[in-house]
Automatic annotation (TrEMBL), chains A, B:
Residues 6-121 form the Tetrahydrofolate dehydrogenase/cyclohydrolase catalytic domain. The gene is folD. Catalyzes the oxidation of 5,10-methylenetetrahydrofolate to 5,10-methenyltetrahydrofolate and then the hydrolysis of 5,10-methenyltetrahydrofolate to 10-formyltetrahydrofolate. InterPro entries: Aminoacid_DH-like_N_sf, NAD(P)-bd_dom_sf, THF_DH/CycHdrlase, THF_DH/CycHdrlase_cat_dom, THF_DH/CycHdrlase_CS, THF_DH/CycHdrlase_NAD-bd_dom. Belongs to the tetrahydrofolate dehydrogenase/cyclohydrolase family. It comes from Sphingomonas naphthae. The keyword NADP applies. Pathway: One-carbon metabolism; tetrahydrofolate interconversion. The keyword Iron does not apply. CDD domains: NAD_bind_m-THF_DH_Cyclohyd (cd01080). Its EC number is 1.5.1.5, 3.5.4.9. Homodimer. NADP(+) binds at residues 166-168, 232. This is Bifunctional protein FolD.
Length: 295, 295
């Protein structure tokens, strides 16, 4: 048990606190609280849980939450009309449409309809392009949370070798872009990568975001490396029970790594904290105010 | 002299020929030739040479060229007004504003003003975002040319290890995104990379795009690797003369690599060929026609 534990839960609580602390100054300057609209279409139970957590977090941060629950048979046109209304609403700084959407609605079309300056999820093509070209925009909350944990743990990342396992638009690719911008030498590995263990073994920083339970083993890890585990996989725990594990075989990697995020309690809590952070930043930008330092 | 020569000049001529061959069918279906507008502001001699070459290539391909030469003291507002006119002109499929622009004009603002669907240079943030997220768009001509040369030489790139040296928005970053999409395992190296020789030595594919004359040496190259040299550097050749060299020390790397692009005659000629290709593709998309195969 050599590795230091990267306590994402504690860091996320701190970040949420810093966001909440900054809200009154924004409200005083702007004459209103930062506002986040969350749209849920249908009755997916996991989505409903996420939306509830987000609503609670928004309230705790002193922000204004606008929850829109639409029936599962909502048409794409109706959802796009709602997005247009939210784009035009001056009280709304951030718009989050909870994914997945029902099959009659094209997710791409809905994301494309969100004002990029209210796209606090960072999924809009304009925000992907801003990240790719080094312009200010919004980056997806999960890789942003990973970057914050890394910088909190390591300070400057300059010159470190990072391997990102997974090339999704939501985690792997933006993570690689952010690490490159932070002056890491970055490799993106994926399902077609040959000798994945050998490639991961080069890394000072490993970010695993593949969605395969405990795939990353101890012998893949360079001793002392910092390991960020984005995976959340539910597996059979015997006796009819299940448990959550990451993409990293925690119980063995903990003996080799220098520091590691647990699952749960690592990256997971960062996502909502970064959503609040992005919403505050969106609010400040829209109001022409400087975003608070240290977020 | 072991390495095969990757003859970009010949490949570019072939591509230009295939584009030219496809123009009559487009013109028959659309009732007009594909059109490229090229805008030159000021008298920069190198830019004037590029613009002339592009104009000649457009003409040779049977396309319609629209050249706009503006004085060096053109205001940003006047240039933006011209871009808006070209955006609205149905005869214009592609818009290229030759960079660099005079200091009174913000390049970012001009690029952002171009209709992304006419942005055949692939510099618009929306096209950077489309590339980053795997959507159809326009990718910058130079890395597109590199990819074509690699695929022509190697066939499938799946599982190959690629190292891109340089992280510019115009070459390095889009090149890395394209190679990732082609299923390579990609590392982006740059000025902050530690042990650059060791990292380059891992690569089956090396793309050098740093702008430092002959920086990449023979001992950096894995025997048999494919080396793409994007650099064009003018150096002192003694006796008051100069010569063009790449970022790769060609005379020594040629003994180690499996294949290599020369400078000049490698990547350089591909850029204009890919500009023509992008213009034809833009024209087909705007006309609702399928782009020809094999481009």
């Amino acid at each position: 048990m050599g590795a230091a534990l990267i306590d994402g839960k504690a860091f996320a609580a701190g970040l949420r606190g810093r966001v909440a602390d900054a809200v009154p100054a924004f409200a005083a300057a702007a004459g209103r609280a930062p506002g986040l609209a969350v749209v849920l279409v249908g009755e997916d139970p996991a989505s409903a849980v996420y939306v509830r957590s987000k609503g609670r977090a928004v309230e705790e941060a002193g922000m204004a939450g606008f929850e829109h629950r639409l029936p599962a048979d909502t048409t794409q046109a109706d959802l796009l009309a709602l997005v247009a209304t939210l784009n035009a609403d001056p009280a709304v700084d951030g718009i989050l449409v909870q994914l997945p959407l029902p099959p009659q609605i094209a997710e791409d079309a809905v994301i494309a309809a969100i004002d990029p300056d209210k796209d606090v999820d960072g999924f809009h093509v304009v925000n992907a392009g801003r990240l790719a070209t080094g312009q200010a925009g919004f980056v997806p909350c999960t890789p942003l949370g990973c970057l914050m944990l890394l910088q909190d743990r390591l300070g400057s990342l300059k010159g470190l070798e990072a391997v990102v396992i997974g090339r999704s638009n939501i985690v792997g690719k933006p993570m690689a872009a952010m690490l490159t911008q932070a002056d890491c030498t970055v490799t993106i590995a994926h399902s077609r990568t040959r000798d994945l263990p050998g490639i991961v073994r080069r890394a000072d920083i490993v970010v695993a975001a593949v969605g395969r339970a405990e795939m990353v083993r101890a012998e893949w890890i360079k001793p002392g490396a910092t390991v960020i585990d984005v995976g959340i996989n539910r597996i059979d725990a015997g006796a009819g029970k299940t448990k959550l594990v990451g993409d990293v075989a925690y119980s063995e990697v903990v003996d080799v790594a220098g520091a590691i995020t647990p699952v749960p309690g690592g990256v997971g809590p960062m996502t909502i904290a970064c959503l609040l952070r992005n919403t505050l930043v969106a609010a400040c930008r829209r109001a022409g105010l400087a975003a608070p330092e240290g977020l």
